[in-house]
Specification:
By secondary structure, this protein is of the alpha/beta class. It has a single domain, classed as 3-Layer(aba) Sandwich (Rossmann fold), CATH 3.40.50.720. The chain has helices at residues 12-23, 35-47, 62-70, 96-123, 145-164, 183-192, 197-206, 216-226, and strands spanning 3-7, 27-32, 51-56, 78-81, 127-132, 170-177, 238-241. It has a seven-stranded parallel β-sheet, sandwiched between helices. Strand 4 (78-81), helix 4 and strand 5 (127-132) form a beta-alpha-beta unit. Helix 3 runs parallel beside helix 4 (96-123) and helix 4 runs parallel beside helix 5. The chain is globular, with a radius of gyration of 17 Å. The relative contact order is 0.14. It binds nicotinamide-adenine-dinucleotide. Residues 7-8, 10-14, 31-34, 37, 57-60, 82-85, 105, 109, 132, 134, 177, 179-180, 182-185 line the site of nicotinamide-adenine-dinucleotide. Nicotinamide-adenine-dinucleotide binds at residues 7-8, 10-14, 31-34, 37, 57-60, 82-85, 105, 109, 132, 134, 177, 179-180, 182-185.
Length: 250
């Protein structure tokens, strides 16, 4: 049975990935720092007969990451670095605390989990790391200074890992979603546009040339493809899934 580790697996895109790989018969370890969501999802998946385990972990804390990877078997096949947080602000309106917080989760979280996973992927004679990046890594989005900085780093880490571990049969790729309708988006609207959530939701949906936001399941399907044998020639690549956001001009 192939095993997969998914960070931020209890909500949104991570939840869709956790559910899909559980349904497909993988041994799934999903990490999250939201204890209630994680436990509820584990119970639901176990009731469906899945081999899914929730591990409470803040990916930005190296000691916690080491502890949960220590609870897994010696080998794993796949790591999906999905946990991430957002922030609104330009260079002047981003505080040092916000910059550090975003860095800790979105960058150091990927570093911590990837570093902990490498010995297990090597023990497996190879495997795969998939990072959930963003269109923010490769274009100038307004008011996303800290967030874009972290996703640029995720793209660079992807290339670096892919290069350094190609001889170990460890591949590394990233997926760059445009807007996907998840609690991440709902929370962002509630926090930054209170009272204008519906109007802003429609505005955000319309910025994708296809006219809507993506669905978490559409990102999970790409992860599943990248984890398949058919994708075994792919490493060091970034896959936008964005309803035409990057590629189509108005
Ligand atoms: P979400 O908020 O719905 O889910 C994120 C999950 O990660 C939550 O369960 C949260 O508890 C967990 N998490 C956050 N910080 C954590 C930490 N330090 N340790 C452990 N768990 C942590 O978000 P989502 O929309 O599903 O986003 C998932 C990923 O996709 C993020 O990396 C995000 O940057 C990226 N992304 C999202 C969108 C979008 O529009 N939703 C677009 C592009 C990229």
């Amino acid at each position: 049975m192939k095993s997969i580790v998914i960070t931020g697996g209890a909500s949104g895109i991570g939840l869709a990935i956790t559910e899909l790989f559980s349904k497909k018969g993988f041994r799934v370890f999903f990490l999250d720092y939201h204890s209630e969501n994680g436990k509820a999802l584990e119970e639901k998946l176990k009731n469906q007969g899945a081999h899914a385990s929730f591990l409470l972990c803040d990916v930005s804390a190296l000691d916690q990451v080491k502890a949960v990877f220590g609870q897994m078997p010696g080998k794993i096949d796949i790591l999906v670095n999905n946990a991430g947080i957002s922030h609104i602000g330009n260079l002047e309106t981003t505080s040092e605390e916000d910059l550090d917080r975003l860095f800790q989760v979105n960058v150091k979280g990927v570093f911590n989990c990837s570093q902990a996973a490498i010995p297990k992927l090597k023990a497996n004679q190879g495997g795969l790391i998939i990072n959930i990046c963003s269109v923010a890594a490769t274009m100038g989005l307004s008011d996303r200074f800290a967030y874009s900085m972290t996703k640029g780093a995720v793209l660079s880490m992807t290339l670096s890992i892919a290069r350094d571990y190609v001889a170990d049969q460890i591949r590394c790729n990233c997926i760059s979603p445009g807007r996907v309708h998840t609690p991440f988006v709902d929370g962002f609207l509630a926090k930054n546009y209170p009272g204008q959530e519906k109007e802003m939701f429609e505005k955000l949906a319309a910025t994708q040339p296809i006219g809507r936001m993506g669905k978490p399941e559409e990102i999970a399907a790409m992860v599943y493809y990248l984890a398949s044998e058919e994708a075994s020639f792919i490493t060091g690549s970034n896959f936008p899934i964005d309803g035409g956001f990057l590629g189509l001009k108005a």
